[in-house]
């Protein structure tokens, strides 16, 4: 219990400092940085159970679900061709970057491709375990570096003067310290959201603690049921929980002498973000959505993290979720079959990582 409490206190201190400095997503990024530094530079024992992360994901999923309506569902279906086009473009560009990474570092192409495709960390590592000639350390490092790059870069970019003119809000509501008044209606719906997350896990949906509440609360919203709003304090707790959890992913000690590979991975992650920015310009012109909504929708980060960014700038959460969910499902069902076929070709048998 002491390591968990220590991690929580460290996260609160980091979040408070980032809030005082008026930095974006202060409770997520601040807790991540502070816990990482304490883990790295002190002997203090810290721990954060995965079920705390799941609680944070349920809160985020509940909030995303509230953004749905009949109109947004119609809009999402009309954008399915754009979702397919942008997803395929990002995957192809990721594979080109993976080829360059393999050429520059000498690491096997199957490993760099599996690590570079912007799917979820757990999904891509699980996929790597199912295939031969895959270095799981490479896959993990590539996925973690891309995720962390997006988590840090995207909030600062969308809050920067470059895009500030398109922001619909500042997101200060999510950082309110007001204690929520207990509403039994909210307790009921939140309990339903938790149950939906548990059920989604039992039927093996991707990111179940997030997707289950999205589907159930979103269903209530489409049916025009009055769903109580998520208190701002719980959103702060969700950011804290996710930030502390992500801090434990920032340990690259197992990478040994792969310094050049890590630097190159950072470079390719930034290149992928630039590709997303270019596609976002086109997407915002094809559909009646803001550039911010388009950019966050295409950013190659996790759905929960990008939803928190979108909420902070009042972007369209339903559109953001639609694009990320489409990409997750596409990668989950199409990519494994495609990669298993590609990796049988002779070009993918060269330069295997020893």
Précis, in short:
The chain is an all-alpha fold and 354 residues long.
Commentary on this structure:
This protein has one domain. It is 71% helix and 0% strand. The protein is an all-alpha fold. The protein starts with a helix and ends in a 12-residue tail after the last helix.
Please specify the SSE layout and strand pairing.
Elements: H1 2-20, H2 26-41, H3 50-65, H4 70-78, H5 80-105, H6 109-116, H7 121-130, H8 136-158, H9 161-164, H10 184-202, H11 208-222, H12 232-247, H13 259-286, H14 291-298, H15 303-312, H16 317-333, H17 335-342
Helix pairs in contact: 1-2, 1-12, 2-12, 3-10, 3-11, 3-12, 4-16, 5-6, 5-13, 5-16, 6-8, 7-8, 8-13, 10-11, 13-14, 14-15, 14-16, 15-16
Which of globular, elongated, flat, extended, rod-shaped describes the shape?
globular
Structural class: mainly alpha
Q: Any low-confidence stretches, pLDDT <50, length ≥5?
A: 165-175
Terminus-to-terminus distance: 41 Å
Q: What attributes characterize this protein structure?
A:
about 350 residues, mainly alpha, single chain
